[in-house]
Design goal:
With about 350 residues, the chain is of the alpha/beta class. It has one domain: Rossmann fold (3-Layer(aba) Sandwich). About 35% of the residues lie in helices and about 15% in strands. It has an 8-stranded mixed beta sheet with strand order 1-2-4-3-5-6-7-8, with helices on both faces. β7 (about 270-275), α10 (about 285-300) and β8 (about 305-310) form a beta-alpha-beta unit. The longest helix is centred in the first third of the chain and has 19 residues, at about 55-75. It is globular, with a radius of gyration of 19 Å.
Length: about 350
């Protein structure tokens, strides 16, 4: 694996060298010039394929503001770094947010979470700020890869989209990056993702069945055959604008099947938590219930599932956060969902345990 850049300055240099454009909002000294979180708009995109669009400069500008918001939200609460690592798929430079506790434990002292953002054309949204901070406060190291196709990193990165394919490799490579940190316990790495990121989470744990200790998939995309039947041909064009699939499902049945988590359930070997909603206008109940039913029937000892009836926000029910203050709305369903998520992750990854104090010397 190629060496990891150690600072935001080296990250910016590596992106330019790769032919991508990224501005991190740093002063000439390399230090953050932003101390107050901007009033970033709440993203309106969902996983339905209607992303921000090909306004590359707008996405670059928005990424600058997003980076500033995360940097400001981290001040005095957690360490934040923006860097890159090279994907195991083709060596593409993958931007990654890294969040760590201010005080680090000794060797293998911390568990870690790979945090997978939603949307075909998305990035690490500001509505995750309170939850990443909570994770770090518990003792987790959090890495959030901006896998290929994410917005805010230039045209070439945008066009590199490989839905359910190499983007999964981009995310899996984050584990290799985590293993370069001596204070991260490689036996306590989890993964969590939403919507399209939930699909990537499911594909990650069924392709590399023992890489993670536990996984959480929230309102995950489940079945590409079902989605195309519901969403139509425009959805196929959204997920495969470069024709990497090589055709429609009737022409490339095996490709769509291997990228649909519903067909991979028998490979599950680790604890998995799944939450869905009946009023989801994106991953419709007809699609996501297939996953719930399969897990309950075939993997009942490894899976926990919860169906919410009609929560505020539907698809975004657990991410209802004030766009100015980043304070969660704390609806009943949102509160319940996150309580279950933390209980599940804390049980399986034990973030309060400092393994460095009990390691054999």
């Amino acid at each position: 694996m190629a060496p990891i850049s150690a600072s935001a300055r080296s990250f910016a240099g590596s992106i330019v060298a790769a032919g991508l454009v990224l501005t991190l909002g740093l002063s000439p000294s390399g230090q953050s010039s932003q101390t107050t979180a901007p009033q970033a708009p709440q993203p309106s995109v969902t996983g339905a394929g209607q992303g921000p669009g090909q306004n590359i400069q707008r996405d670059l500008d928005r990424q600058v503001e997003t980076d500033k918001a995360w940097r400001a939200a981290s001040e005095g609460v957690m360490r934040m770094e923006k860097t890159t690592y090279k994907s195991r798929a083709g060596g593409l430079d993958i931007p990654v947010f890294v969040f760590q506790p201010l005080q680090l434990r000794g060797p293998k002292g911390h568990p870690a979470l790979v945090w997978v953002h939603p949307d075909i054309r998305g990035h690490l949204y500001e509505y995750y700020i309170p939850y990443v901070r909570e994770a770090v406060s518990k003792g987790y190291v959090v890495v959030a890869p901006e896998y290929r196709g994410s917005v805010g990193y230039g045209q070439a990165f945008y066009d590199a989209i490989d839905y359910g394919g190499a983007e999964v490799d981009d995310v899996l490579t984050a584990v290799e990056y985590l293993k370069t940190m001596p204070h991260v316990d490689p036996a306590r790495i989890g993964i969590i993702g939403w919507s399209h990121g939930g699909m990537i989470t499911l594909l990650s744990i069924t392709r590399e069945t023992t890489m993670f200790k536990a996984a959480v998939a929230m309102v995950p995309v489940t079945n590409l055959f079902q989605r195309l039947a519901y969403k139509g041909a425009s959805y196929q064009r959204a997920i495969d604008p470069q024709n990497r699939y090589g055709g429609m499902p009737n022409e490339k049945h095996d490709t769509y099947r291997e990228r649909s988590p519903i067909y991979q359930i028998d490979k599950l070997q680790i604890p998995l938590l799944v939450h869905i909603t009946r009023n989801d206008g994106d991953v419709n109940i007809e699609e996501c219930m297939q996953l719930v039913d399969a897990l309950r029937a075939r993997k009942p000892d490894l899976s926990e599932t919860k169906i919410y009836d009609n929560p505020k926000g539907g698809h975004l029910f657990d991410r209802q956060v004030d766009a100015k203050t980043f304070v969660p709305e704390n609806t009943r369903e949102q509160r319940d969902s996150w309580n279950r998520v933390w209980t599940f992750l804390d049980w399986n990854l034990d973030p309060f345990h400092d393994a460095s104090t009990t390691a054999v010397k």
